[in-house]
Specification:
Oligomer: single chain
Distance between the termini: 60 Å
Number of helices: 2
Structural class: mainly beta
Helix content: under 10%
CATH topology: Immunoglobulin-like
């Protein structure tokens, strides 16, 4: 019986494991899955900057402490945006999720970003040092 319970725990995507995954989506107040090339709105920040709100859905990371992330946005292969957040994961929809990750653009203005495809690469690392990686392309939309 104990072996059966241990095997069930290994298949729990919200428990720490050895085969972590990560999907990059979008969202300020919840995780929204995204398909490749999906449109995301450019956000005008309160301090005069511009960003898009990313979200992640992971499995098998250690949720007992904060995780660290590194996200890079590239336009035509050139790095144009970055985020290096620390955040917590919550178990929802059989996955570990977090949202409101601001991928901040520097130097480029909204007219330079509107209609452009940004390639986002991300890595999330838990307190054990276990990493999950993912990438997704987004079509940036300037809503103004």
């Amino acid at each position: 019986m104990m072996l059966f319970l241990a095997l069930l725990a290994c298949n729990d995507p919200c428990s720490a494991g050895n085969d972590p995954t990560m999907d990059i989506g979008w969202g300020f107040d919840r995780y929204n899955p995204a398909s490749e090339g999906e449109e995301v709105d450019l956000v005008y920040g309160q301090q005069g900057g511009f960003h898009v709100d990313l979200a992640v859905s992971t499995t098998e990371l250690d949720m007992s402490d904060l995780v660290s992330g590194t996200f890079t946005g590239r336009l035509d292969g050139e790095s144009v945006a970055e985020a290096q957040p620390w955040f917590s994961l919550v178990c929802e929809d059989d996955a570990q999720q977090s949202w409101g990750i601001r991928l901040i653009f520097w130097e480029l203005l909204p007219p330079d970003l509107d209609g452009q495809t940004i390639e986002v690469e991300g890595t999330v690392r838990d307190a054990r040092g276990t990493e999950a990686t993912g990438s997704k392309s987004f079509l940036v939309n300037d809503p103004l």
